[in-house]
């Protein structure tokens, strides 16, 4: 029975976190737009979600119905599975895999597939363009993230997330490799189709892969995106911000506080930074950010060898 | 019963509007979007109220009917400062406060007091396809026929890398949310790169929509900066506001650097320079207006989709009208689009 | 075993949630005019599905090279401390060779939308 508790906690955190992320998103938008902020902002995600649920779902002409139905559900699965390797307290984890970050990497890669399927399945031009161009940026961002994750695994001598968290008992990885955290946050934006890395559901495509989503289909897709955002924040907190380590407060509280902080940072970046045309972003990723990731890896490697 | 509870909660969400903007209607719709009780949607799939603002051409009526039918139920149509088009039996004309009218219609739709509008077009597939082909799917062989009522795209030359893959030709507009309202473009795309462009109908003239702050806002939207764009619009509508905050939002966003240099260049001024010029004009720094003329259709070919959208949104309206002379010789294609 | 069961149960629960959310919705089936893809009021002439001209195909080849390299990095990360400088130098050489690929690709313009 005790094995079920982490699973229940996982879904609870995913759900509450998604709501918090949506509320933060609304608040950030209002802040940028200069609208007054009210406490009611916290309730807006519910209203918006319900609104989607009571409307009609439209299927386009000859869609790929199975993939359209499955895409949000698969996205949700990837969010849950990705987060299942993250410990919230010592030993309190759904799956303490030896190769935790490899599983997370697999979830990253499959996210690209799921987002593509979502854009593909409507058989409509704007979603299709969003789907194809997302693959270019999604793949490149994922490649970057794997280098920074490997760099984080070096001091731990393990690919298990719990071991990486333990290796940060004295010094957090964000101190060791600050650019690593930044690069990983970029991956988070790319995985959740947000802000400067939103090439799938972008405003220049009138919503991109979700341009043909209506009613409950839209609710499910948005919920899955938010869940993935929570999952990313959990992984970031565990790998770069010391996970449950921290003074005074109990471990799980630290973990949740750090996750909320990462959520706020990601949501803020969404509304503050402009999106580059995809070709420009692709060049930036490969010629500036990927070499930066190599540099991080080399520096961490040298530091680990000298330290021990 | 759970569903009616959901509906009650949904009533308190802002009204989801798909705006159809006609002549001189843009500034009014932009100002309406600042109202907390409404939210403008980029596609009819996300909206419940079709709001037609400003006079539209008779030739746009078929497009309007098609858009109307693309809204999910429950849905309603409102005319605002425009002559109602014929054939919308359940639509309503707004007199007076539009925000209140929208709120009222929204509440009635969500509570079920107002009946959702029926389709205007006949419930028939675009072409008869049933029963034809090996599996009754309407197609023959690999690419022949019209599978499910529509032909497939066919290969054509590509002007960038010469790889002859499928060319997708379609009319975009006249009310595509990412293009200036009224602009009907026939684009041929290979992947997401424009191969050729034709203006079938020019955008609508907008009398009061060309304040520099509004121009900046319209360019920030396709860059994904909805919040900052709204702040620019708000300042434009109120005609007062802290320009320092706007300056910071613009600079920190990296919008100027996100736009590729040389994009949409006419007579030495590219989009970056236009954005900088508008911002200087908004701050009261005198800055010479660009006078160079050309044709929008000459700027678009070879551009990737997001670049093309930036270009289409980067001109003052009076200038845009000069850049968009309709291609008259192709009346046949106009038939195809409307 | 418990780990894998946990992942499986989480997946099933997420799948069920994702599908259940889409079970809501009113308004019935889509009519034919509702099904037309959104083009701002125009009627599409052809199906959107096509032999799509993917502009970044040459980048994907470079991507595969790096992705294969990633396979070697996973075990390398675990034994890095044991092997010490040797591991560092070996991976440095490997990455350096691949980086020449980036430079070459950059010169050939593979990161532009061809």
How would you characterize the overall build of this protein?
The complex is a heterotrimer of chains A (about 300), B (about 350) and C (about 110). By secondary structure, chain A is mostly helical. Chain A is built from eleven helices and no strands. With about 350 residues, chain B is α/β, with parallel strands linked by helices. The longest helix of chain B is centred in the N-terminal third of the chain and has 14 residues, at about 100-110. Chain B is globular, with a radius of gyration of 22 Å. Chain C has a domain at about 55-115. The radius of gyration of chain C is 24 Å and the shape is flat. The model of chain C has no long low-confidence stretch (mean pLDDT about 90). Chains A and C meet through helix 1, helix 3, helix 4, helix 5 and helix 9 of A and helix 1, helix 3 and helix 4 of C.
Class derived from helix and strand content of chain C = mainly alpha
Helix content of chain A: 55-70%
Low-confidence segments of chain C, given as residue ranges, are none
> Which strand-content bin applies to the residues of chain A?
under 5%
Query: What can be said about the biggest beta sheet of chain A?
Result: none
Overall 3D geometry of chain A?
globular
* Helix segment tally of chain A: 11
What's the number of domains of chain A? 1
Strand content of chain C: under 5%
Mean of all residue-level pLDDT scores of chain A: 92
Which shape of chain C, going by the Cα principal axes?
Answer: flat
Total helical segments of chain C: 4
Kindly state the number of beta strands of chain C.
Answer: 0
Distance between the termini of chain A: 41 Å
The whole-angstrom Rg of chain C is: 24 Å
Q: Main sheet of chain C? A: none
Distance between the termini of chain C: 48 Å
The tally of beta strands of chain A, per DSSP, is: 0
Given as residue ranges, the uncertain stretches of chain A (5+ residues, pLDDT < 50) are: none
Quaternary structure state of the chains depicted: heterotrimer
Q: Tell me the helix content of chain C.
A: 55-70%
Can I get a quick summary?
The complex is a heterotrimer of chains A (about 300), B (about 350) and C (about 110). Chain A contains 11 helices and no strands. By secondary structure, chain A is mainly alpha-helical.
């Amino acid at each position: 029975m005790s094995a079920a508790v982490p699973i229940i906690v996982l879904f609870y955190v995913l759900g509450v976190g998604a709501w918090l992320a949506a509320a933060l998103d609304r608040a950030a938008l209002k802040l940028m737009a200069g609208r007054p902020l009210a406490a009611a902002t916290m309730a807006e995600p519910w209203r918006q979600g319900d609104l989607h649920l009571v409307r009609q779902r439209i299927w386009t002409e000859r869609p790929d119905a199975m993939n359209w139905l499955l895409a949000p559900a698969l996205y949700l699965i990837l969010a849950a599975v990705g987060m299942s390797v993250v410990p919230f307290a010592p030993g309190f984890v759904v799956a303490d895999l030896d190769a935790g970050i490899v599983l997370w990497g697999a979830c990253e890669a499959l996210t690209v597939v799921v987002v593509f399927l979502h854009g593909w399945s409507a058989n409509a031009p704007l979603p299709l363009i969003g789907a194809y161009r997302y693959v270019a940026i999604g793949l490149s961002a994922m490649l970057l993230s794997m280098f920074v994750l490997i760099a984080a695994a070096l001091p731990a001598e393990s690919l298990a997330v719990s071991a990486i968290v333990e290796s940060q008992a004295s010094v957090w990885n964000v101190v060791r490799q600050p650019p690593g955290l930044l690069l990983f946050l970029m991956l988070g934006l790319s995985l959740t189709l947000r802000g400067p890395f939103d090439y799938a559901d972008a405003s220049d495509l009138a919503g991109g892969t979700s341009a043909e989503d209506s009613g409950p289909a839209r609710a499910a897709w948005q919920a899955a995106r938010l869940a993935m955002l929570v999952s990313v924040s959990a992984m970031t907190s565990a790998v770069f911000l010391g996970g449950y380590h921290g003074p005074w407060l109990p471990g799980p509280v630290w973990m949740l506080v750090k996750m909320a902080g990462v959520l706020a940072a990601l949501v803020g970046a969404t509304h503050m930074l402009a999106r580059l045309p995809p070709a420009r972003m692709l060049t930036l990723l490969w010629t500036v950010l990927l070499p930066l990731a190599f540099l991080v890896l080399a520096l961490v490697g040298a530091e680990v060898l000298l330290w021990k | 019963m759970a569903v009616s509870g959901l509906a009650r909660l949904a009533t308190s969400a802002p009204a989801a509007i798909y705006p159809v903007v006609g002549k001189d209607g843009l500034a009014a719709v932009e100002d309406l979007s600042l109202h907390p009780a409404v939210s403008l949607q980029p596609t009819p799939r996300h909206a419940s109220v079709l709001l037609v603002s400003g006079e539209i051409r008779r030739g746009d009526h078929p497009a309007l009917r098609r858009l109307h039918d693309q809204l999910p139920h429950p849905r309603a149509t409102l005319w605002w400062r425009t002559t109602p088009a014929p054939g919308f039996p359940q639509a309503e004309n707004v007199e007076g406060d539009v925000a209140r009218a929208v709120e009222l219609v929204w509440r009635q739709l969500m509570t079920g007091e107002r009946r959702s509008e029926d389709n205007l077009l006949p419930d028939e597939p675009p072409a008869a396809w049933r029963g034809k082909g090996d599996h009754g799917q309407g197609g023959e062989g690999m690419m022949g026929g019209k599978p499910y009522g529509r032909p497939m795209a066919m290969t054509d030359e590509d002007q960038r890398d010469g790889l002859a893959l499928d060319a997708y030709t379609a009319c975009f507009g006249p009310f595509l949310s990412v293009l200036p309202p009224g602009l009907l473009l026939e684009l041929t795309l290979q992947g997401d790169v424009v191969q050729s462009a034709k203006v079938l109908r020019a955008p609508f003239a907008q009398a009061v929509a060309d304040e520099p702050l509004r121009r900046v806002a319209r360019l920030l939207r396709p860059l994904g900066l909805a919040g900052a764009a709204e702040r620019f619009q708000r300042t434009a509508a109120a005609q007062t506001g802290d320009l320092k905050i706007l300056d910071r939002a613009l600079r920190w966003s990296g919008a100027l650097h996100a736009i590729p240099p040389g994009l949409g260049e006419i007579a030495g001024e590219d989009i970056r320079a236009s954005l900088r010029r508008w911002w200087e004009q908004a701050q009261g720094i005198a800055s010479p207006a660009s006078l160079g003329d050309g044709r929008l259709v000459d700027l678009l070919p070879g551009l990737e989709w997001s670049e093309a959208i930036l270009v289409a949104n980067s001109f003052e309206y009076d200038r845009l009208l000069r850049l968009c002379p309709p291609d008259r010789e192709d009346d046949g294609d106009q038939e195809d689009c409307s | 075993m418990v780990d894998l069961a946990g992942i499986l149960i989480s997946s099933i629960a997420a799948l069920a949630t994702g599908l259940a959310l889409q079970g809501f919705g009113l308004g019935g089936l889509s009519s034919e005019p509702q099904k037309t893809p959104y083009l701002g009021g125009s009627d599409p002439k052809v199906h959107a599905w096509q032999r799509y001209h993917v502009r970044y195909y040459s980048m994907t080849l470079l991507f595969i090279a790096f992705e294969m390299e990633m396979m070697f990095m996973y075990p390398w990360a675990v034994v890095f401390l044991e092997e010490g400088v040797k591991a560092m130098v070996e991976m440095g050489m490997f990455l350096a060779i691949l980086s020449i690929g980036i430079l070459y690709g950059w010169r050939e313009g593979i990161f532009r939308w061809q």
